[in-house]
Amino acid sequence: xxxxxxxxxxxxxxESDNTITRDGFKITTRKLPILKAGPIEEMTTKLGITxxxxxxxxxxxxxxxxxxxxxxxFNAFDALDRVDKTGAAMLKVSYSKEWQQNxxxxxxxxxxxxxxxxxxYSTDYKGTTLDCPAFEPSNKPIPLELLRRPDPILFFxxxxxYEDELADNGIAMxxxxxxxxxxxxxxxxxxxxxxxxxxxxxxxxxxxxxFATGEVIREYTAREExxxxxxxxxxxxxxxxLALMRDPNRLAENLSIVGKSLERLVxx
Amino acid sequence: MxxxxxxxxxxxxxxxxxxxxxxxxxxxxxxxxxxxxxxxxNVVGVDAPVTICGDIHGQFHDLMELFRVGGDVPDxxxxxxxxxxxxxxxxxxxxxLLLCLKVRYPDRITLIRGNHESRQITTVYGFYDECxxxxxxxxxxxxxxxxxxxxxxxxxVTGAATALEPTDSPYAANTTTASVADIDQDIEVETLNAxxxxxxxxxxxxxxxxxxxxxxxxxxxxxxxxVGAAGTGASGSSNGSRRNDTGAVLCVHGGLSPxxxxxxxxxxxxxxxxxxxxxAMCDLLWxxxxxxxxxxxxxxxAGFLFGADIVKVFNHRNDLSLIARAHQLVxxxxxxxxxxxxxxxxxxxxxxxxxxxxxxxxxLGEDGSNAGYARSNGDGSAAGFIGAGALGTSGFGGNAxxxxxxxxxxxANGNRxxxxxxxxxxxxREGPGRRYRVFEAAPQDSRGMPAKKPVAEYFL
Lengths: 268, 460
Fold this sequence. Notes:
The structure holds 2 protein chains of 2 kinds.
Chain A: E1 17-22, E2 25-30, H1 37-47, E3 54-55, E4 60-65, E5 70-75, H2 76-80, H3 96-106, E6 128-129, E7 136-137, H4 144-148, E8 155-164, E9 170-180, E10 184-195, E11 199-210, E12 215-226, H5 227-235, H6 241-244, H7 248-251, E13 256-266
Antiparallel strand pairs in A: 1-2, 2-4, 3-8, 4-5, 5-6, 7-13, 8-9, 9-10, 10-11, 11-12, 12-13
Chain B: H1 5-16, H2 23-37, E1 43-47, E2 50-53, H3 60-70, E3 78-80, H4 91-104, E4 109-111, H5 119-125, H6 127-135, H7 139-148, E5 154-158, E6 187-192, E7 198-203, H8 210-215, E8 248-252, H9 263-267, H10 280-286, E9 288-289, E10 295-297, E11 304-306, H11 308-317, E12 320-325, E13 334-337, E14 342-345, E15 359-364, H12 400-404, H13 411-422, E16 434-439
Parallel strand pairs in B: 1-5, 2-3, 3-4, 6-16, 8-12, 9-11, 12-14
Antiparallel strand pairs in B: 2-15, 5-8, 6-7, 10-11, 13-14, 15-16
Helix pairs in contact in B: 1-4, 2-4, 2-7, 11-13
């Protein structure tokens, strides 16, 4: 039974952490089911916004360097705490205008938008770190050529932090991938959002660690494009456009870069 | 050429094995189903006993598990509240099996429409792609969409018993005595695991014992009748007696609509069309309850949210004791809100094969008799599936009840506000006895399920 039991249904408290230690760096991932009603309520109160429908509040991915005390962790709460809670950055679904016009004639008393916030859960989260030692702005990019080499992967995981179906108007998803090779590691935290008929967003945070030198590079790239523009640029392809629109790896090149930052620190 | 009894039984056998049936047969079944569904009103009348199920989303193997836990058709009378398709890998097999069962046993299974039973949604969320992949053309998808247009918008369950006859089965290993009410009490809610073992049992809070029961973690949140004396005048002091004055239960996929104040207004809609982007039909399939006063607009710019006062006034006006709806994922499989006047039932365990949630079905017993619960528990082979497993200690013991049932946030304030709305002479019906069977995802087999371990990739 144990070999083919239901996946991912461990209750919190069970040993569910995957870890690997390499040259003084400890890498940890934790994957648990979505939160229960109680913890969701607690999170709602603390955040001040309704969490996404699929909220993996117990999941995390972290890189720590015990000898220097440095660490970087990716978790759902801290990511959601950076979502706009005022409604200033609020998007509207594609048929909103039509819907509102018809509604307002009939129900002039129902005008109040309940608890406005950025329900697309767009976040510019770059991970949770301590301030010391701190990242500093840098011009040195992540050495992609080293990452393209087929070095053996000693540890790999893909951890989802949250996902929302935007009430069947698209998808919003934040997940973290990490791969550890003998000499270095790469972590990618990706927020992907498609609001059907309106907008695409991809916000990537990459963390690169070179074990031998203790060098850590963090790169943040925000991409955005109108839905129609992306659809048109994909229309010429022979592939299934719907499938492409679910695949951020393929979409990224079709989205314009709207924000970028590069930081670095060296751990002793 | 018409699909007769034995052909249909063969199709059902084939679909139960998760094998698609030939296109010609799909066309035939869909035609038969339309003929049946066109005779149904927008709101189908259903007699208790009935087992109410929420979203399935193409999780075929979990649908099989649901039938194992809840009993097979036609032994059990089922009501599915929509969202049969999309997201999962086997929308086609799941929907066609339910449809064949509907054609074969029309009085033992009721299907109502979810927001995913729509052309537009299925082209984006998987069902269309699946049909194309499995048949090489969109014909089957088109046949199914024509059936979608004929599905009822809601169901009205009558004759549900107020009191539950406690299940005669052992407690689950991790059930604590604190979560199990004395069986001599008037049992309102019982939760069982997939093997029929008792996880929790909760007595109805009577008006007299209300102040005590609120402090007792094993008791229910205040029953609706505590806003005044109970229902029909005969039941004001009915502590311990078996009452049968429950109102009807409205089942709908999403929720209420500001355009609908009576169930008769649902009956007047022209439903035989694609789900529109606005209007009452759209609201019934899309709206959500929320902790607000009155009606609210969703921050998304389309869609309604409705609060406790809306539900209570609607239930009172329509002589309902409960609204059962689906549409929203809940980790515990079910979630009661607003003093148990509305419940969300979710029947897709481990949703999208990654959420790790449990699923639930809701059984309503028959008024005056408990024949509907004469069922055997555990068929040997199934024993030990849950074992000491995933419900774990954090599942349904102790205060998990209050979690699963929502936090009863209205409290005294909510009731005061409500009594203002309803006036002193108006009272709410007592809720029906509710038995929730909670189950996990079927064991993952090798057929196209995502691997437990993610495959290492050289991402950049």
